[in-house]
Specification:
Layout (H helix, E strand, L loop, with lengths): L5 H9 L12 H19 L10 H30 L6 H25 L8 H25 L6 H12 L1 H20 L1
Length: 189
């Protein structure tokens, strides 16, 4: 998947040559999660443009925070891309776990966005909002895939594990909604 062009993947997807989630069922939502993480890393790399920032101590604290967010977002992107690369489906439980991993990546992305919002320059706020929207879409898409596979999961422990993963999507959505509203308020406020 990493060596395929975006248009090549989309052409193959449109032609029915690859399931929407890839062989593991996680490719499409994993790519959304990777995009969200890439946007977060990009926002964390932005330097304030307005020149009206706080003093040197606050600037250093901001640099340390954004460096941590950047590193974490880069790690999330790599995890999501690994899931997108895995096209060998290996059963309902493994496929559902791959989608569950996408949900966890999306949750971590939304958490990073919350840390980044207070120090994000106004010019980068639209990218931050897009990262939140994309992480939310990744989690919702992955949840739908997990829920579709739950009927094939006969192991009670695996069923409970996967059900618990999907339960985190609604709180993630609510948190993302609030952060998006805060972002919009900062843009227009």
């Amino acid at each position: 998947m990493r060596t395929e062009t975006i248009s090549g993947y989309l052409d193959r997807l449109a032609a029915g040559g690859v399931p929407a989630g890839g062989g593991s069922g996680a490719a499409a939502p994993a790519l959304l999660a990777a995009q969200a993480a890439a946007l977060l890393a990009s926002v964390a790399r932005e330097d304030p443009q307005d020149g009206a920032g706080p003093g040197a101590g606050a600037d250093e604290a901001r640099r340390r925070l954004t460096a941590r967010v950047r590193a974490a977002a880069d790690g999330l992107r790599e995890m999501a891309l690994k899931l997108a690369d895995d096209e060998a489906g290996s059963g309902a439980v493994a496929d559902a776990r791959a989608r569950g991993a996408v949900i966890m990546i999306a949750e971590a992305g939304v958490e990073l966005a919350g840390k980044l919002l207070p120090v994000t320059d106004r010019a980068a706020l639209p990218d931050l909002a897009t990262a939140l929207e994309t992480a939310r879409a990744a989690a919702r898409s992955a949840r739908t895939g997990v829920e579709a596979l739950l009927t094939a999961v006969t192991d009670p422990a695996a069923h409970a594990e996967l059900t618990a993963l999907t339960a985190g999507v609604d709180p993630l959505t609510t948190c993302a909604d609030h952060l998006i509203a805060d972002t919009t308020h900062r843009l227009h406020g």
